Amino acid sequence: MKIFIDSGNLQDIRSLVPLGIIDGITTNPSLLAKESGDPRQLLKEICTLVRGPVSAEVVATDTDGMVREGRELAAIDKHIVVKVPFGKEGLKACRTLTGEGHRVNVTLVFSPSQALLAAKVGASYVSPFVGRLDDISTSGMELVGQIVEIFQNYEFGTEVLVASTRHALHIVEAARMGADICTCPPAVIESLFKHPLTDIGLERFLKDWEKAQAARR
Ligand code: G3P
After folding, report:
1. Three-class SS of residue 142?
2. Is 44 a catalytic residue?
3. Deepest in the core among 62, 104, 140, 206, taking most CB within 10 A?
4. Ligand 1 geometric centre to CA of 214 (Å)
């Protein structure tokens, strides 16, 4: 399963990419709004740091505007994937943009029927938001399971990009279900490394080694 960083923060991206586990980046207007400077310049810089797809979202709400903006975003760098919000306008824009050879990530997906429709118009990625569903007492991971099951029945070529992840269990469950990608905030990626028994185990190994060395002296 591929792991993307869900962030527009250069410092976070720079610190995680050298670990060798990062396959791409997703951004959204809220994430880019947190960063200073020109968002398009920032996206350009992000593309130089990662050898993989970088999702950049349109803010237009009508099809023509989304297509126009999508073309501009795609022109920033070959790694850019145009992100459009789910809806009739978004799906029409997705169809046009994919017809022109651009990759599109359909975002704000909260039901299996929405994912199916996005796949039908040629989306490269669909982004179910698991954390936001959990927030309203609905299982986000159940939705991921349903989408994976539907996509296994056909040959859409659309990847399931699990978004709005909040903790390591989301990532583990997504991998068990066979989701293609999880995009995670930097703190969630950091948490994937941690286990108290690893730390305790290493401390004990080093102590035992040190004791044996001291006895030999
Ligand atoms: O990038 C879209 C998604 O991952 C947003 O997550 O935490 O704002 O629900 P969140």
Report:
1. helix
2. no
3. 104
4. 52
pLDDT in tens, 91-142: 999 999 999 999 999 999 999 999 999 999 999 999 999 999 999 999 999 9
The residue extents of the domains of the chain are 2-216
Q: Whose CA is nearest to atom 5 of ligand 1?
A: 164
State the virtual CA torsion across 79, 72, 60, 161 in degrees, nearest 10: -10
Residue nearest to atom 4 of ligand 1 (CA): 164
The pTM assigned to this predicted structure is: 0.96
For residue 50, pLDDT over 90 is answered with: yes
Pocket of ligand 1 (CB under 6 A): 6, 26, 28, 129, 131-132, 163-164, 183
- Ligand 1 atom nearest the C-alpha of 135 is 9
- The class (CATH top level) of 2-216 is alpha beta
